[in-house]
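Internal QA ticket QA-208
Title: Verify multi-chain structure generation after dependency bump
Assignee: T.L.

Test input:
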Amino acid sequence: MTAQRTRVLSGIQPSGTKHLGNYFGAIKQHLELQHEHPGEAYYFIADYHALTSLRDAAALRASSLELARTYLALGLDPDKALLFRQSDVPEVTELAWLLATVTGMGLLERAHSYKDKLQNGIKPTVGLFSYPVLMAADILIYDATLVPVGKDQIQHVEMTQDMATHFNEAYGSGGDLLVRPEFRLSEAPFVIGTDGQKMSTSYGNTLPLFESGKRLRKLVSAIVTDSTPLGAPLAPERCSVFALLQLFAAPAELERISSHYRAGIRDGEPFGYGHAKLLLAEYIEQHFAAARARKEHLLAHPDEVEAVLKRSAIRARQTARATIDRCKRACGLA
Ligand code: ADP
Ligand code: TRP
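Actual output:
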């Protein structure tokens, strides 16, 4: 198997409403990569993985669809990228078993993510422990070469590289049955939350992507700032609101906002955090206006979402079938 071409793959957990951290930290890059590698971008909703922490069929179904709508609304182009449910390609669980048989316990025992999840009170099932094996199968079954992920997932991609090597050594008879992937970190790996920590669903400090109007302004107004009185000079580099504005405003505009901060004045009037927050709410609202409208449309047309998921799964399955057949033959199966 030679792998000169780039094939992009990533899995996304269908949990919760997506927020600015998810967008700037992950989704935006996924969407850019579909244009850089049209026809070679595979994105899937990690619903088999979600079962390790979610046991509510209706909730899983709903959040999988919500995630699909979110990606389509934000610009996933079904002519350039595939968007499918992990569970619509059951071959991935077959490959996970083959990989499990060449994976040492020690490799999985070193996984940070497993230890973190136990600390967060998730039940230590065999599924949770072997999560990295299923994740490796997700990547290897599509011959993916490039896996855009957040920092917390780097170790999982490295484990995938090890599993590919072990499998190739065991069964490859000198050639490569499985392609070793590389990870890619996004350029904006850290989006700050309303409380000044990393924005995360589990901290309850998020700004959801599709909020607007009064509700959005209310969420933005909750961003924690210091108690500098209105009209006094402010330090933009120490302000969470400014950090978030940097995600949206063009450099010249940021320069202007920054000068308002430092002067504590804008157009002869006092300028304070409240003004900066209003500005941020406007930026967010505008930036996602078109996506919000598309999401509303998709909400009213679930058949359009389902059609993309089904069509993508058929294509993804063809690739998966070829890999699993090759691997099974090499092991003496089939
Ligand atoms: P959450 O913390 O809300 O549960 P996830 O852990 O599911 O988010 O993250 C999904 C993707 O979004 C990952 O690729 C992760 O790196 C990215 N991401 C999440 N929060 C942030 C953030 N605050 N800044 C940058 N990227 C983020
Ligand atoms: N583990 C990833 C996360 O929690 C999701 C995921 C599952 C994934 N399989 C993958 C990411 C394969 C990249 C490639 O975010």
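Spot checks passed. Residues 78 and 241 are 35 Å apart (CA to CA).
Status: verified.
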